[in-house]
Amino acid sequence: MSLTFGGSQLGTSVRGLLHNASQVYADSPGAHEWLRMHLARFDEPLRVAIAGKVKAGKSTLLNALVGEEIAPTDAGECTRVVTWYQDGPAPKVLLHPRGGPGVAPARPRQLSIHRRDGALSFDLGGTEPDRIDRLTVDWPSQSLRGTTLIDTPGIDSLSADVSARSHQFLAPSDEPTAADAVVYLMRHLHSGDVRFLESFHDRGVARATAVNTIAVLSRADEIGVGRLDALMSAKKIASRYRSDDKLRELCQTVVAVAGLLAQTGRTMRQTEFTALSELAKLARSDMDGLLLSADRFVTSDIGAESSASGTSIRTVLDSQVRAGLLDRFGLFGVRLGVTLIRQGLTDPTKLSAELVRRSGLDDLREVLNIQFTERRDLLKARSALLALDLVLRREPRPSAQPLAVQLERIMAGAHEFAELRLLTALRSGAVKLAKVDRLEAERLLGGEGGAASARLGLDPMAGPAELRGAALESLSKWRRRAESPLAGRGVADTARVVVRSCEGLLAGLPR
Question: Cα–Cα distance between 334 and 291 in angstroms, integer?
């Protein structure tokens, strides 16, 4: 059960406002088309952009989320272009050309699709990346039905043009971004990451960037130099980042994910499982020696022990096969896969599922569902209001004055936006509360998910009576805080918003 505070009512109000605005600006082709586009955007899947520096693992993570290798992961031309991946009835790739000054862009044209070593590839047909606005990839996928994933070029590319494309898409100078939410990948928290996240802050009506951004500590398996406890180390670092005051201002949470392991786990082939099984038959000392370095793993002589099938391990695991394993699993993935097989996980389907679980991908998908999917209508409404705010500022006219008043009324009256503003204030330290009270307030405001159980800190299977009891207790506590003569104005205002959230919780519970 999710708390929406009339989320459908908010969506209806914003849809109606955009419809009225499109009529007011019917004589302005640019504004009218812009508003109609954002009105249609309400019915589209949530748009989630994947951003980060070069080699942060963006395309690899996208493939892991989809469960198929549809995003090129090499350093080819396609990775220098913003690429949209969306559900479609049949595979199709369209190239959308970029227009020039005073020149409308040409019509999109379809590209040919190829499969190479199980991965999707497509040729730009000689078109330079700087002449391309975007690529759209239609792919039949259950994972893409509710979410359109947008792969962006590296933001610190050696090519200034490549970096500029990502910045222009994710943080345009004077208009809302085309993405409803952002997953930002980083290998460690560097000043460049903080600067980019700061640049992504809204300049418009819904100043709450953190609500639509999560950070991923990507390539988490590399943190522990490929040791089996690497992911545990990465999760501890992610937990430390989550408590970083500066980062809390800029994103909802930080999750550690081994993207390569997640991608390979979801797309593992029978030949790879067979190769890992053969490696598991080697003596531990021999296997440990192989895994000292990538070069040693590929080039060392394995020996000619016979396997149970009568085929020598040397034949099954020649250098080419091992190079393929290294490319697909990395040293950490090979070590983990062999260890799990030795521990008795000899079913390929179960091994695949365990690799995915240990990669951290399930944690990320849960966060995406809680932070983005549950807030879909709110994020869509937010994007629409930013679009309308831009039109009103660019083309003010007397007939649009009622639109500005209505927009202000929605922003001031919608409790969802009040929650977002307060969440940002709490995370940034603008409102000071004792730590235990701050964490409780953030939870009640939906910082850990919109479901009633998540807001109340209860088990997802909690019954109506337990939910109602916890909601009444929270309401009473925060109402006393709001009415206390000793509370400062900031604390009292905070408590009143939390009280409204608790009241909304109670109203949404079955009697």
Answer: 9
